[in-house]
Amino acid sequence: xxxxxxxxxxxxxxxxxxxxxxxxxxxxxxxxxxxxxxxxxxxxxxxxxxxxxxxxxxxxxxxxxxxxxxxxxxxxxxxxxxxxxxxxxxxxxxxxxxxxxxxxxxxxxxxxxxxxxxxxxxxxxxxxxxxxxxxxxxxxxxxxxxxxxxxxxxxxxxxxxxxxxxxxxxxxxxxxxxxxxxxxxxxxxxxxxxxxxxxxxxxxxxxxxxxxxxxxxxxxxxxxxxx
Length: 227
Description:
With 227 residues, the chain is mostly beta strands. Helix content is 9%, strand content 31%. The chain has two helices and twelve strands. The protein has helices spanning 137-145, 214-224; strands at residues 2-6, 14-16, 23-26, 35-39, 52-60, 75-79, 106-111, 128-135, 161-164, 181-186, 189-198, 209-213. The protein has a six-stranded antiparallel β-sheet, with no helix packed on it. Strands 7-8-9-12-11-10 form a six-stranded antiparallel β-barrel. Residues 30-226 form the Peptidase S1 domain. Keywords: Disulfide bond, Glycoprotein, Hydrolase, Protease, Serine protease, Signal, Zymogen. Residues 1-24 are annotated as: Disordered.
């Protein structure tokens, strides 16, 4: 588990995940010298024993990245140095290119975002997590059209996305969780299926969380892991 933060001042925080010991998928566009990646921390504040703070060498954006987050809403942070793996710092598996976990698959999303709109984490700022089922982009797009005047033929949720959550709401990500990992257990291994991208409100009916589908970008990520 990784967290990117500014090197000085009051930091914006983004979640991330460690794919190998020198790369962490996230979604913040930034100058490399401004950010560091914290690994092995389960709460914010002073780094606990076993946690690491790694400087970023380079920020890589996918070819289809768009400023409005409609496409390519993730980044690959190349660290300046390899980080040692430990009980607290472990890589997550990448999905097979083009793979499609079945809808309803139980997954976990984690982050340091608000508990609900306007309600921040408690003072000791623990890492939060919630179990949510996967939704395919077509079903998710149908839900996002409920209560809108957007023509049904006009996509709100694009094919490069996937969703997770419940049609009735209640469990979801919230403000501050952007960039966090959506991981699913497959054959005994945790796989990074999605990266928190956007949503409407928090845990509202018919508005599940929308994620960048990592399988769409697996070839691009793999091509840069050895650089």
